[in-house]
Design a protein that fits this description.
The protein is α/β, with parallel strands linked by helices and 458 residues long. The chain has helices spanning 2-8, 16-39, 42-53, 64-76, 141-161, 185-190, 240-252, 266-287, 291-300, 338-351, 375-388, 403-407, 433-451; strands at residues 81-87, 90-98, 104-110, 131-132, 135-137, 168-174, 198-201, 209-214, 216-225, 305-313, 323-332, 358-365, 368-369, 393-397, 413-415, 430-432. Helix 2 packs antiparallel against helix 13, helix 3 packs across helix 5 (141-161) and helix 5 packs across helix 13.
Length: 458
């Protein structure tokens, strides 16, 4: 840290006494930023509410209005956002703060949300951004306009308080995380516009946890052939739907496989299990589930899951169906791969005398993770403890995020953001006001410590 700060101020490395003064001023600098954020804490709540009020459903995915709102807010803070639009309406915004190319900490958030669904099932207008009972309500409050507001507000405070930052904070705000990120994070990474020595994203993780790993995706399409016949004489035909049903039984066998996760993730899986066990009773009550169903989340963390999403078959009720197509969502923990899934399914179909049922991968994504020993996680954990008295645990999640595009390029990437996972995409979505304020402080502290070269023990 001494060498970096001395270089940033044009001092000689040998001038140790003066450099030590700078180390002290670094702490004071961080405190100034945190003090500003505490004083102006209601601002992040207002920003989150404002983001929720602008509909940005995907599909259809046109982010023009949302991107305009964000650019205007950033401009009011003295920040300029570059716009990149690889596809009409798919607008990416890039914001840079700092005076040097390195070190570079990438920051990431998405502006799109899933559709609100049946408005009658909401107790509030999903685009009201209503602040009530200590919560901001509306579509996207948890996933992830709350986290995006935290990143934007923290970055603006740093830009106002820090005259010269010896590195770069690079914020990427993307348009299509909810539909795969092909024109957002993936495109930015491929174009070299999103990069860094590490990346901090603000997807909902709760303020007590940080997502360091996620399962992979393997979407399969099975086609079962049959032979048509009259519905009154089914024995003369071959029923493709029945054959697909037998194939479904085969695929459920994937869930019984024991997957050995990488050794450095074993503690992460156990930590995640503990968290979800604690959440299970409240989940069961809130969602009206039997306790064993809610407890099943813990098992899903390191086991394969299978969801039969779409089935198409048959022509008329009085005909034996000659074809049936089945789309299956398979989620894969680290230690297994999508190609392993395909090979296993084909082998087991053949063993079950279903070799004529074809199977192909229509979309896949490798499981990915950042070791909890990484510096970026260590800094986040230290700031959560020092600023908010929180012991942040590293966890794995079952879904996929934009983090994978950076992890595939070797960039250590973690999530830390307000909101609970079961409220993402749900009716009456909300984020806690308290969590917005805490997450903003922790994120800001982590950003500064990374750029100012703070070292922590793993």
């Amino acid at each position: 840290m001494i060498r970096l700060l001395a270089a940033a101020e044009g001092l000689r490395h040998e001038d140790v006494s003066e450099a030590r003064c700078l180390v002290l001023s670094t702490g004071e600098l961080k405190e100034r930023v945190l003090k500003r954020l505490r004083t102006e804490a209601e601002g992040v709540v207002k920003l989150c509410s404002g983001l929720v009020k602008v509909p940005s459903e995907n599909p259809p995915g046109d982010m023009t209005e949302m991107a305009g709102f964000i650019r205007d807010w950033l401009a009011e803070q003295g920040l300029r956002a570059e716009a990149h639009e690889p596809k009409k309406g798919a607008i990416n915004l890039i914001v840079r703060v700092g005076d040097a190319e390195e070190p570079c900490l990438a920051l990431g958030g998405h502006m799109d949300v899933v559709p609100a669904g049946d408005r009658e099932r909401w107790s509030v207008d999903p685009y009201s951004g209503e602040v009530r009972d200590g919560r901001v309500w509306g579509r996207g409050a948890t996933d992830m306009k709350g986290g995006l507001a935290c990143l934007m507000f923290a970055l603006a405070a740093i830009a106002r308080e820090v005259e010269h930052l010896p590195g770069t904070l690079l914020l990427a705000i993307t348009p299509d995380e909810e539909t795969g990120g092909q024109h957002g994070a993936r495109w930015l990474v491929e174009q070299g516009l999103l990069h860094g020595d590490a990346c901090l994203m603000a997807e909902p993780s709760t303020i007590h946890a940080s997502v360091v790993a996620e399962k992979g995706i393997c979407w399969l399409r099975l086609r079962a052939p049959g032979r048509p016949a009259h519905g009154s004489l089914p024995m003369l035909g071959e029923n493709a739907i029945e054959k697909a049903a037998r194939a479904m039984e085969v695929l459920k066998g994937l869930e019984e496989l024991e997957v050995k996760v990488p050794e450095e993730l074993a503690a992460v899986v156990e930590s995640s299990r503990e968290l979800f066990r604690l959440l299970a009773p409240s989940l069961a009550e809130e969602l009206g589930l039997p306790p064993e169903k809610a407890a099943g989340i813990a098992r899903a963390l390191d086991h394969i899951t299978v969801n039969f999403g779409i089935i198409k078959g048959g022509t008329k009720v009085n005909m034996v169906p000659e074809a049936c197509e089945l789309d299956v969502d398979v989620r894969v923990p680290p230690g297994f791969r999508p190609e392993d899934v395909l090979a296993w399914v084909k082998s087991k179909l053949a063993e079950a005398s279903l070799g004529d049922v074809s199977c192909e991968v229509v979309h896949s994504s490798e499981p990915n993770y950042t070791p909890p020993s990484s510096r970026i996680f260590g800094l986040l954990r230290a700031n959560a403890r020092e600023i908010a008295g929180l012991d942040v645990r590293p966890i794995i999640i079952t879904g996929g995020t934009d983090a994978r595009f950076l992890r595939w390029r070797g960039v250590p990437t973690i999530h830390y953001g307000p909101g609970v996972l079961h409220k993402a995409h749900a009716y009456d979505e909300f984020v806690e006001v308290r969590d917005l304020k805490v997450a903003t402080l922790v994120l800001a502290g982590t950003m500064l410590d990374f750029i100012l070269d703070r070292q922590v023990q793993p």
